[in-house]
Write a structure and sequence with these properties.
Length: 287
């Protein structure tokens, strides 16, 4: 009989070697680091949303630009052409660019669309020249008149577009138009009146009535009511009557041309004290 020996090998328990201890340490470190990063992200988000870091001169706001500068992607060379009435800061602020700021992710096509959506820019061209050059060319809308709408005053261009960022108080030399729809109809009126320099010098303002017709206000206090149709001929008629008969110098209150082919004149009221003053002047002159 042959003896059969069965050898049973018990799997030995592994002792915690230096390698295992290193793995355990790395796991613990990764867990703790992830927790710290998550906590830092939560705190940073709260600070940013609360605008605690968003102040002039903040070092946090300068980090993207500095990082971009390291890789040569900072806006170090910015050329802007075409500005006459606005500051470069207003233009750059609209597209989120500051001198020395980051150009990483900057899209020239998007920037152009943003600029052309500004009410004071008619057309824009934006070109990115890698790595750190930005060329911006714009065509501003030209101030043409001041439009009064209720208590507010707006600078408008010939198309009637109201432009923000311009103060009416600084452009008082511009013609004044008032009323709903006056901004869209102003160019035709002003161009027509400009053909008669003597009349143009006397016009102080023009009011759009019911978005159908105009009433002119002269420096002398006289009002000229123009018709809805044929108002161009009415303006010419007023100018001719003034040249031939000094119509606008005869102490009248208003000229009404709303009825076709007729000119109605309202004489200004003469106050009693003015009559007495006139008599005294005549008496004094007779002596």
């Amino acid at each position: 009989m042959t003896d059969t020996t069965l050898h049973v090998y018990e799997r030995p328990r592994r002792s915690l070697s230096w390698l295992d201890r290193g793995n355990e340490f790395r796991v613990r470190f990764a867990v703790r680091a992830s927790a710290l990063l998550f906590l830092g992200a939560v705190i940073s988000t709260g600070l940013i949303r609360g605008e605690y870091l968003d102040y002039e001169g903040s070092r946090w706001l300068q980090l993207p630009g500095k990082a971009a500068g390291v890789v040569g992607m900072a806006a170090e060379d910015i050329t802007i052409t075409g500005l006459s009435h606005h500051d470069p800061e207003a233009l750059l602020g609209a597209i989120g660019i500051a001198p020395g700021g980051s150009l990483i992710g900057f899209d020239a096509a998007v920037a152009r669309r943003i600029l052309e959506n500004l009410d004071w820019i008619e057309a824009a061209k934006v070109q990115r020249r890698f790595p750190n050059q930005l060329d911006i060319s714009v065509r501003e809308r030209e101030p043409f008149a001041i439009w009064q709408r209720g208590p507010s005053y707006y600078i408008i261009d010939k198309s009637g577009t109201a432009m923000s960022g311009l103060s009416a108080a600084e452009l008082v030399r511009l013609p004044l138009v008032t009323g709903e729809g006056a901004n869209k109809a102003a160019a035709d009126l002003i161009n027509q009146v400009s053909a008669y320099p003597d009349l143009l010098l006397q016009v102080k303002a023009a009011a759009r009535v019911g978005d159908r017709r105009w009433t002119l206000y002269l420096d002398s206090g006289i009002t000229v009511q123009l018709p809805e149709q044929g108002w161009q001929d009415a303006i010419r008629m007023v100018d001719e009557l003034h040249k031939s008969q000094r119509l606008l110098s005869k102490g009248i209150k208003s000229v009404d041309l709303r009825l076709d082919g007729r000119v109605m004149v309202e004489v200004a009221e003469v106050k009693a004290e003015d009559v007495e003053t006139g008599k005294k002047k005549k008496v004094a002159k007779s002596h």
